[in-house]
Amino acid sequence: MSKDRIDQVFSPEIPRMHNLDEIDRKILAALHQNSRISYTELGQQIGLSRVAVQARINALSEKEVIERFTVVINPVKVGLSVSAFFNVDIEPQYLDEVAEKLDQEPAVTSLYHMTGPSTLHMHGIFADMEEMEHFLLEKVYKMPGIVKVESQLLLKRYKSRMGMRL
Questions:
Q1: Tens-digit pLDDT profile for the chain (166 aa)?
Q2: H helices within 10-136, ranges in order?
Q3: Which residues make beta-bridge pairs with 149?
Q4: How far is Cα 111 from Cα 105, in angstroms, rounded to an integer?
């Protein structure tokens, strides 16, 4: 991310994040764009030494502002072509138990406790419809407390954001 792009991302209209100064915000913007950037290159972009950048990133990690560094994999390129969203209604006394079990499932990419008609909102990625059906029949439907499961298949992805917007 160029210095001009970093400055553009942090225009005065964007509210200040709690307990983060301008330098931390610039570091986070650059890492969000490319988490593999070297400390040296990042320092050159924002006007800090490599050591200062490393110290700030370590501090952001210790404060859990940065939760983890990861890679974004294109699911289709690795043979996972079915992407589905599920609304799962659960009896309240089973909510935590079901959420903990679903959290352990490799196909589940995100899981949220939501307001409204559905208790859990879940996203999963599968190799094919057969794998998704097996997941539903053999895992989800057999969990205690499941009242109803609604699913929607993804047809086309226009935008997907990993992490939060700064």
A1: 555 544 444 433 334 556 789 999 999 989 988 889 999 999 999 999 999 999 999 999 999 999 888 888 888 889 989 999 999 999 999 999 999 999 999 999 999 999 876 689 999 999 999 999 999 999 999 999 999 999 999 999 888 776 655 5
A2: 22-33, 39-46, 50-62, 95-103, 129-134
A3: 88
A4: 11
CB 70 within 8 A of CB 115: no
Put residue 116 in one of left, alpha, beta given phi > 0 → left and psi -120 to 50 → alpha. Answer: left
* 6: alpha, beta or left? (left if phi > 0; alpha if psi -120 to 50): alpha
Q: How far out from the chain centre does Cα 57 lie?
A: 19
Give the three-state DSSP class for 139: helix
CA-based nearest residue to 45, from 62, 58, 28, 59: 28
State residue 17's pLDDT score. 53
Rounded CA-CA distance 41/43 in Å is 5
With tokens 């210790």, the residue in question is 62
Please say whether the beta carbons of 83 and 157 come within 8 A: yes
Structure-token pair, residue 112 = 């949220």
Q: Which candidate, 84, 75, 101, 82, places its Cα nearest to that of 149?
A: 84
Tokens representing 117 are: 């008609």
Q: Give dist(CA 27, CA 11) in Å, integer.
A: 15
